[in-house]
Design a protein that fits this description.
Elements: H1 16-29, H2 41-47, H3 52-61, H4 67-72, H5 75-89
Helix pairs in contact: 1-2, 1-3, 3-5
């Protein structure tokens, strides 16, 4: 019997809270969203920490999966992953 292959997945190098904060900052700065800057990367780099409280609110909202999400996967794993992301955000 062959051993099961290890499941590979892409993983980010940055905390989820940082990525959410950067996305929120981008929405405010980028002309592709509600902002006016054609290239907002510098502004996002300079301001994303100001969005961490909002990012934390997003993470706390995501603790419980929707019914459809729970049917398609393991709700306990989801909750654990989100709690880990919340804990990770507290270190930023």
């Amino acid at each position: 019997m062959k051993p099961d292959k290890e499941i590979e997945m892409d993983v980010a190098n940055t905390a989820l809270a940082e990525r959410i904060a950067r996305a929120l900052a981008g929405l405010d700065h980028s002309a592709n969203a509600d902002g006016v800057e054609a290239s907002a990367s510098v502004s996002v780099d300079e301001t994303w920490r100001a969005y961490l409280e909002r990012a934390d609110a997003v993470l706390r909202t995501m603790r419980e999966p929707s019914q459809a999400m729970a049917r398609s996967g393991d709700a306990a794993v989801w909750a654990t992953m989100i709690e880990t992301a919340i804990t990770e955000s507290e270190a930023l």
